[in-house]
Amino acid sequence: MTDAARLFAALSTAGFAGEWDDGIGARRVASTDNSIYQVLPAAIVYPRTGDDVTTLVRALRTSGVALSLTARGGNTGTNGQSLNDGVIVDFGRHLRGIRDFDPVAGTVVVEPGVVLDQLNAFLGAHGRFFPPMVSTASRATIGGMVATDASGKGSRRWGKTSDYLVAIDLTLSDGTPWRAEPMTLAQAQAIARGTGIVADIHREVLRIVTTRADDIAATFPDMNRGLTGYNLQKTYDAATDRFFLGYLLAGSEGTLALTRSITLRVEPKPAKRALSVIRYDAFDTAMRDVQRLIAADPVAIEIIDDKVLGVARSDIIWTSVEALLGGVTDIAVAAMNFVEFIGDDEATIEDGLARLTAIAPAGDCQVVRDAGQIGQLWTLREKSVGLLARLGGNRQGLPFVEDTAVPPDRLADYVAEFRALLDGHGLQYGMFGHADVGCLHVRPFLDLRDREQAALIRPISDAVAALTKRYGGLMWGEHGRGYRGEYSPLFFGSLYPELVALKAVFDPDNRLNPGKLAAPAGHRVDRIDGVPLRADADRRIADGHAQDFDRAVACNGNGACFAWDALDVMCPSYKATRDRAQSPKGRAALLRDWARLDSIADPTPAEAAEHDAIKRDTAKSLATCLSCKACTTLCPVKVDIPTMKSRFAERTVRRRPFRHHVVARMEAMLAIGRRMPALANAIMRTGMARTALARIGYVDLPAFAPAAKLPPVATPRAVAALSPDRRARTVILVEDSFTASFDGNVLSAAARVLAASGFTVMRLPARANGKALHLIGMRDQFARIARKRMAEARALADHGVRLVGLDAATALMFAQEFTEVTGEAVDVAGLETVLADADPVGTRGGGLYRLLGHCTEQALRPQALVQWATVLARFGIEAVPTKTGCCGMAGLFGHEVANQTLSQDIFALSWQAATQDDAMLATGFSCRCQTKRMTGRRPMHPIELIDRQLRG
Predict the structure, then answer these.
(1) Contact status, residue 788 vs residue 802, Cβ threshold 8 Å
(2) Are 824 and 859 in contact (CB under 8 A)?
(3) pTM for the full model?
């Protein structure tokens, strides 16, 4: 029996309510974070309650196994903070509760897995917020923020996470529960006179903070970004007689205790904000301008260099922020400073902007006041980490020296030397960060699969540590130490033995995240070049696999796919399960490991067994991917899981189930059903047919409802016969199999509305598009279909007519899946883009409608719903774009028997609340079908409502 199995047995006996997993797939998924490292754990445990945490620690001791416990929150660590070879304690799956909000005291209690955006969404309803604002707020957990004492944007005003701690409920290394909260020195001394681990801890901490007070004052720099990781500087404040272990625990990265819950102080949320975007022709000019700009007293000054701006232009967010950044300029923009002002009234904002104007920034300035637009600009800044992994080629911006901090007045000179250091190695790099507090994120561009480049990690790290120390700063200014603990003696000096003493008294057996920060006698701190790199595994992937699964290799673990918000489109399977293996990051990890093992020409029996296990786990993970394609655009690295899912299935499915053969012939069968819908529906309603379909694996298939009257068929000859003027006003409706078969009224309505708007309407009849073939990896058959469809569409588009799709998921194939095969694209536009140019022909109102978008459409055409709202308004209809995630249908996914629970859970995340009455419009066929299935109400397509208005 393995150590993990013995621990699981002890947990079961002790009544542990959570879950555990020691499967190779789950462990591979848990072996990486947002760092350059990869460490395979022995197991992962998912506590469900705070008591589970205590049960886990005690079970580990009673089981007698030699495993460690490493706490994990959002899995966004940039230096391996939550990586280890023992048991990963994942708080993010279940411990996400918020309770005991006290508006009078301004406090709230959270479990460690609560995500920052989740907390602020809760607090926002009460006019409050939690100020530390990290760029990974959509997935960073409060427990993780405490572990690294995180700060982020605005820290010059708002400080760090530790500044908002009221109390921490802990489980100590021997299983003792303890509540750390502020007390007087006398109270701490009284506890120290007792016995047991709590008394031992207080006795040792008191000794250090009282006898080494002068050394502590001399060692800890007077900076906004203080020396984190055992913060002795604030643990005892003699001036106020306040002793609080919370300051010591904040930044300790789970090396001293495990957290069960956290009581936080929160602040009133500022009502107003404005953002000044300042552009510069040189990064050094922007950097040196910061010290002048601080005099305007903004809440934050953030800097972005030209490398970040360059890759941002290829991101989906660029279309929404380009104009806000100042548009085209004669001089190349080398850097930008974002300068934000906040306040409770407009007068406060205007005063701040006036101070900024009086300073006369050294670049051109544009002020943004709209809260939504400001949010978009900050999203661009927050994406910087991920964007630098998308530079083209094999090099990525890597985070091993990315969060150094120095006194702000020395930052420009420090950065000049930092750049010279990297230039000396012939490296490019990206720079961005919190310039107002001297914390700059620097990511050198390296391909660690190249051993010579991997060897640069040591000399660059050593040189940066020495440089930072010389400037009176810190090597870790924001993201914690992680595997950089070997540099602790350099920065803590004579106090470092006291850190060792602290670790020894809190965790004498070195069971809590060992190898980080400090180690008790007889143990060691890991060295940066003694920890396996992820690239060590990646370089063993054969060239063919590395090319076909390059997006999996490119995944840098930034974790954007772990976003908390159910209204965020990416990734529905993860949001419904909170299983990291069912996320783009998790799937990328599994695909990489399968590709590595599949690349072994002559595997050992152990390697062959691991290969088979990983293949099963990868297939299981990919089976729940809805292929919504959100990861192809919303992931900063564009990790395209649907395409890799198709390629994986092509390579691994040797014996196809009968269901796949049915799917391969589905579109041909739908064509027959369209010709005789009454007979097809009569057959489908029989018990025999339903039973047969259920055995194949499908339920709740929609009834046939093709269009009764169709526009003429478009052919190249017919289009060529039109006059040039008429061709310019001709629209060809590109039918898809599902809409044509089951929702024909949408086609009829579109034809009528377009005709009434002055267009000549033709159609490209529904023919096989092969989307289902692509999904299940029958790629040879799909490729033949793709070439036919592209040639057919190109022959029409070349005549200058507009091709318009009725359903985004299939229309976008002409720029996605078909392009993958043919290398070319045809613009099959959304119906809303054509109608935006039409003259309004109706002015009757009809209530207020919610506009709901298809998830693929939201991901690849983010402006579609706004355009539909504009179109509807031209026809006298008021509609509001309503943010939702995926509906849980996604083509055939929601009809598959195996997916019923997951499909329903995904619908419940956001669509259930948005479909409570008939005042809704849905652009996607799948969404209309799923809503009818789940609620009994079918939303109209927007074009159907316009058609109804026109027809009276």
Answers:
(1) no
(2) no
(3) 0.94
